[in-house]
Design goal:
With 216 residues, the chain is an alpha/beta fold. It has one domain (21-211): Methylesterase CheB, C-terminal domain (Rossmann fold, 3-Layer(aba) Sandwich). The chain has helices at 38-47, 70-76, 128-139, 156-164, 181-188, 198-208, and strands at residues 29-34, 57-61, 82-85, 96-99, 105-109, 112-116, 143-147, 168-172, 194-196.
Length: 216
């Protein structure tokens, strides 16, 4: 297996097991975006999160318009957390995974979810950019963005928005992605703080959650 990917200036990895300095900050929400290969990536992350994981997680996985219960049903088998399709105007609860329903944009306001049928963004509805930009606007430095495997550039603008608002953005190392285009676009766009192999992302989120502010 090849060595670690070279990191662009200003981006760090976390591969030595030490507590990351970002863990001293307070976080309130994690947003995750993925597309091609995303089900395996989400499975890997969720399997590493304990049942008492305190932060809510909002997820955009690109889904077919006719998609039904397949994604939430699959993820429930691999998560100790409650996994649900999001409902408009639902209050955000700690330790819950909220999925963007098929053919709806998912947005977060402070403590609340909202759904939209506005036009597709980056050819996608749900769009990662829409979710991430709403998290940047509503949560600022309390937001964590995670961009995973995918075949297009959706999420690159949203990652940059989170970073510019003081939040933290983690990208899956493209070398560990089934489809590297999406995390690579976020890295190239300057919207990433950390690049991690897929199997390190879950443990990293656990460390970041230790000083978290929880909902409900």
């Amino acid at each position: 297996m090849s060595g670690p990917s070279p990191l662009p200036p200003g981006i760090r990895s976390w591969i030595d097991g030490r507590v990351p300095p970002e863990a001293s900050r307070n976080y309130e929400l994690i947003v995750i975006g993925c597309s091609m290969g995303g089900m395996h990536a989400l499975q890997t992350i969720f399997e590493s999160l304990p049942s008492d994981f305190p932060l809510p997680i909002a997820v955009v996985q690109h889904r077919y318009r006719t998609s039904n219960e397949a994604l939430p049903s699959f993820l429930r088998q691999h998560s100790k957390l409650d996994v649900v399709d999001s409902i408009d105007k639902e209050w955000i609860r700690s330790g819950t995974v909220y999925l963007a329903p098929a053919n709806y944009h998912l947005l977060v306001e402070k403590g609340e979810l909202s759904l939209s049928v506005d036009d597709a963004v980056a050819y996608s509805r749900p769009s990662i950019d829409v979710l991430f930009e709403s998290a940047a606007d509503s949560y600022g430095s309390a937001a964590i963005g995670v961009i995973l495997t995918g075949a297009n550039a959706d999420g690159a603008k949203g990652c940059l928005a989170i970073r510019r608002h003081g939040g933290l953005v983690v990208a899956q190392d493209p070398k560990t992605a089934e489809s590297p285009a999406m995390p690579q676009a976020a890295i190239d766009g300057g919207g990433v703080d950390r690049i991690l192999p897929l199997n390190r992302i879950g443990p990293f989120l656990v460390e970041l959650s230790r000083n978290s502010v929880t909902h409900g």
